[in-house]
């Protein structure tokens, strides 16, 4: 499916683009993190240890004032806590290990990003292809519908849908725990279904537009007419001629959409609409109340989001520059 | 086709979209699990009381009757009564609108002021430190979740440095201006600005970063065009070549993209409002969703949809004005 | 058309080298060319595409952009007026009446564009900004040249009232525009001068509303805005309909006679050369391989490449206007692929052993009016010296052989 020419141009672009290399490394790192989270984590991310709450990250010393009652008298005491390697990213207000939470949070983000995008690509491409290929009234009504969808800002629509439909989740057993390879880790992983479908639903229009445009232009090509004249079915023509041609822009857009959906997911989790509590956005929301004392609770998960999204965006730039020079917008000689 | 007719047609199309938006928003209530009554009625309400509440809310009618009631209500500017506050939804929504518009406009201004010069510099000084700084900034900017950025700004600027307030803003732009004009009091506007800076930066950053990217790549494209070489050959100074020729043509496609991306501005505004406890539509919607205050949810979503459609028509108008080749189709 | 003096040319290009530093390697687009162009003459540069003739034109104007750079050579321009105005600031660039454009600072050089040198391009449609009216674009040229003349040294004065803020203001307030009313009037005069009917109306139109021929006239008008001494015309008629080509060429000749400017005409079309030029240079692989008067070169071509171009019978009537295809490929200009021999040898029907040893130079003994970079200029052709016909094909075969041997070892 991937031709040699494509491979070559991917390689060439990779060779002289430091940014592409950084992107690949970041994305791979985060994927590994997400996949093998139970192995890297040192604590169960959901386990509360109230006596260890608000521990600062490794290398940070935190001084705070604490009220104590000594002999019925209220006293103010200075307490100094030092970050330890036990909790390299510190702990949250309930004493949960942030490092483990960041690792497991990657799972939520990546899963929602990937499946949400797949959902958007699936629906968008099929609708777009049908609209562009058949044209006429089918096209008109589908594209009007797309216009209406576009009239809602994706995030607003997603907030409304997820907030109203309610957070439906499934618990997927963790294969490593089930196989007995690790202990003390959560046995299941909470996958937010409503959220995934909604982020897909609010993003399908872009794919529909691309697929429709390609289908419209290719429909007129001689070889498609020829295929039709020899009796190829619509389905065959769509699959064999039109789909492969629209693949490049779809892949490029899908990559960038994964990043957008991760941002969307974190926003919804931040609002508390996602149904899972093991998510970067959720942790940022948790930390908001403790900005004055424990800055790391909000800061660190945010950095995780940022690096993940930067990585995916760089990957998208690389694919775009390599696969579709027309899109890159770099000035010629 | 003339420009006026093009705009009229575009507006009619917009009206159609708005109608679709209204219908969709209306239907939203029927795909939502649970009845609105659950949220309004006391937990121990008797079935009779529940039925009475349903009648009060107009929920006993068939869907189509409710739909047309709602539609005709909208035409008269009536969005029903808030379930929770018992006041007309339209009034509540309208009172929240200025804060959101002020925020969005401020963020757009921030974005335009910083992004276009940065994008141009980045393109004209390609492969120089300025360019690397600008591309790095724009990459980070489009990759940072804005709610987190807002929190970090609060952490650093308000908590850390102790400047700029984070409390809910006490005064809107219009009262602040009234104070300035009628009482010659500058404090109102000062307070307004102090409360505006962080939210505007939070919301504007993503936009700034995106326009920097678009401007840079667009400028690189335009600067490679033959007409740029010709402009240089006829002796035009470089500033003129850059700004009057290349930038102008760069802006034409950027404007269309911006029109589409305004959605992310509005979406971002909702979240930014939530972070800064901003008294705008965004916080209103989120609060209403949590308690299922349907008239407010529907009204606010419709207002946002209409706003977006209107902005897009305005963008189209600007586009046709800037681009002489457009054929008004 | 004047009789050239030969002693004090207006423009003397010496050893000009322009290179592009691309990913594939260094491209020697212009590889050390020498030219002298006289006052009020039409000088043609002919060659196939990819021979470096357009790059030569851009190099003279100083419009080479990254990754290209002029690495060597001088462009001497005779202008006592210029010597006077800048001599004090840039003494190193001045030699008698001549100024070395290459030695000037980019700022000063920029001020010469439009006023001393001007250029028209191949494709008028892409050489005008599509979103500004034609009148405005010509008026811009007028305006910037007036500012340049009023204050030749200050770049600031020329850009005054223009920058980002003015750009934004100018979209809102018409009074903030760079172009003044008088410049627009002058633009209309210029349009009239190049024979555009209804110039007042047409000035208000956008490039896409013009036909190709009319737009090329408009470009000529734009180039004349600053009354330049030298007009460089890069393939001025290639993009036009055949029927209009002649009109545009006639217009150029007319204007040349009226104003007495010098025209440097870049073309691949021998018919155009025959019609327009007083003298010409033939370009091949980044070098001028033959130069002389039109008469000399057409009647008595020495270089086998020129001979090939002209076909067996040179013909001044222009009936044979297309370049005759010459067997073989246009040479690669990549530095590491350029052989250390006559670049034409692999396509030359008369190549000799000598040609492979060292690249030929312009003969000293030749008259200055007709010179050739070819060994045949001093030895007459003797068929027995010629290499066998399949010399180059066997050469490549041999190298391939060696390479594959090396691979198996
Ligand atoms: S120098 Fe030799 S190879 Fe080159 S053109 Fe002259 S005869 Fe041909």
UniProtKB/TrEMBL annotation, chain A:
InterPro entries: BP-dependent_transpt_permease, MetI-like, MetI-like_sf, OppC_N. Signal peptide: none annotated. It is a multi-pass membrane protein. Keywords: Cell membrane, Membrane, Transmembrane, Transmembrane helix, Transport. Its main location: membrane. It is found in: Cell membrane. Residues 106-316 form the ABC transmembrane type-1 domain. Pfam families: BPD_transp_1, OppC_N. This is ABC transporter permease. The keyword Cell membrane applies. It comes from the Archaea. Belongs to the binding-protein-dependent transport system permease family. The keyword Nucleotide-binding does not apply. One of its GO terms (biological process) is transmembrane transport. One of its GO terms (cellular component) is plasma membrane. The chain crosses the membrane at residues 20-41, 110-136, 148-169, 189-207, 247-273, 293-315.
From TrEMBL, chain B:
It is a multi-pass membrane protein. One of its GO terms (cellular component) is plasma membrane. Belongs to the binding-protein-dependent transport system permease family. The keyword Oxidoreductase does not apply. This is ABC transporter permease. GO terms for biological process: transmembrane transport. It is found in: Cell membrane. The chain crosses the membrane at residues 12-31, 93-116, 147-164, 192-212, 254-276, 296-319. Pfam families: BPD_transp_1, BPD_transp_1_N. PANTHER family: DIPEPTIDE TRANSPORT SYSTEM PERMEASE PROTEIN DPPB-RELATED. InterPro entries: BPD_transp_1_N, MetI-like, MetI-like_sf. Residues 97-319 form the ABC transmembrane type-1 domain. Keywords: Cell membrane, Membrane, Transmembrane, Transmembrane helix, Transport. Gene3D superfamilies: MetI-like (1.10.3720.10). Its main location: membrane.
Automatic annotation (TrEMBL), chain C:
Its main location: membrane. This is ABC transporter ATP-binding protein. One of its GO terms (biological process) is peptide transport. Gene3D superfamilies: P-loop containing nucleotide triphosphate hydrolases. GO terms for cellular component: plasma membrane. Residues 11-310 form the ABC transporter domain. InterPro entries: AAA+_ATPase, ABC_Ni/Peptide_Import, ABC_transporter-like_ATP-bd, ABC_transporter-like_CS, Oligopep_ABC_C, P-loop_NTPase. PANTHER family: ATPASE AAA-TYPE CORE DOMAIN-CONTAINING PROTEIN, OLIGOPEPTIDE TRANSPORT ATP-BINDING PROTEIN APPD.
